[in-house]
Structure formats: C-alpha cells, structure tokens
Amino acid sequence: MEYLTGSGHETRPPIDGGIIQAPASDREAICMLLDPQIYQDSCEVAKKMIADGDGEEIVPSKGIKKILPAPISARRWLSLASPERNGDDDYFSSDLTDEQLIKTFGSLPARTPLCILLSGSDEYMPTTIDKARLLSRWMEIVKKGKGKVDEKHSEVIEGASHTLDENPSVVVEQLVTRVLGFLNALPGHPNL
User: Fold this and answer.
1) pTM
2) What pLDDT does residue 59 have?
C-alpha cells in the first residue's frame, strides 16, 4: 500500500500487480494486546516528544516491549498506533472512514490490479471484526476510485493465521491457489 499510494508513489516504477496477504491493523492489534493504560500513556509520551521536536527519538520501552521488542521512534509509534486514527501507516484498521480509505485503497493506480487475502483466524485481528464485510468494503473503495481489484481471487482464507505458521497444508494450499490464480490472470504473465 505504501509503495502504491504513499508519499512519492507517482515517481516509483509501475508494478504489474499487488497482493496484500494478512492485512491487519497495527493499532487494533496493539490495543488488543497491550494494557489500555500503557497504550494511552505511550501515545501521550510520543505526542509530547513530537511536540518537543524529539519525534525521531526512541519512545521509552516500559510496557510496550511486551509486544514490540525493538526500539521505536515517537513518530513511528504514532504512525502505527495513533489513537486519533490518523497514523501514516494505518491502512488496515476496520474503523477508518470512507474518506480515509479513499486516500489509500481508493487511490490505487488503475494499471495495478490488487488481490486481497485476509487470514480468517488472524491472531492480530480482533475477533469482533467481520472480515468478509471488511474485505467487501475495501474492494468497493478500490472500485470507486477506479482501481482494479481481483474479485475472483481476493478472499478471507478460513483457518489461516497471520503468518500461516503451523497451519494445515489445506489452508496454505487455499492461499497458494488464490495467489497463483491472481498471477496467472495478469496480462502477459505465463501460467505458473
């Protein structure tokens, strides 16, 4: 998504197609896995750091290292986890408005078809999210923006975890079948 719609995307070489596999909201995962008070405090600390001109400095890891063991700058933390729902990298949150999604899914280049494969048992997505409805919403936004989405191969892969680690082969085969179907449908690409 960043390559196709992020800052400077107009100058990047075109690609034949894009596959989004296991898209999950960092913010929703963080809120699901982190104590709410630690989440709120870490966001307040990051906001203050940015306001003080220290946005590229490392957020104190107290509390957040449980889910993020690597150091992270204040700017990057809010890019992923902004409680205002306006982070630069917040592409996949289920609570984004249509206006926000128009700037990402709705601004995909028409020349680049997209295949979206959600994991049905993604451990980083709240179980309250209706994944089929979310997928449908994203696909409608792509089409409204005159982009191309592969409706035949985009799917919620039932039983799939985020990384497909330790998933049964039948689940992995579902994903591979959809990926190959998408790739084989691209103009000028040999069948795989």
Assistant:
1) 0.91
2) 94
